[in-house]
């Protein structure tokens, strides 16, 4: 015979709900494979291998970890774009601006048609087909300023990359 909610007291309802959740938890655990050795995992992430970064905190790095402390936390690190290349500097840049692992360089000379705002050097044969960086003091100054900004960006990106890689590993699970 079935019992209705009205016939059961509050304590009985709580007991029935508790029993139901315990049953469901046990049923779920039957589907899980028991692992007894670390080598049985597909992937193991060791806390000691986590990057040393402000976005990563771990209890094992604390001098006095408390029981209620989180084992570790990982904050999101946003990928930033490199600084914008000034228009007059675009034809002089050699390398990929978006790759922080490859140092940018500035060309020593470029074809005259790539920089119409610059005046080519005259030689005994007439006007040169190339523009030399050493003749363009404003471009040289702009290049120095830009490369300094880019290096700061690239250094931060290289520091942030391992944190983003770690976050992707967690998201893949």
TrEMBL record:
Q: Domain of life, per the record?
A: Bacteria
Supply the name of the protein.
Uncharacterized protein
Q: Which organism is it from?
A: Glutamicibacter arilaitensis
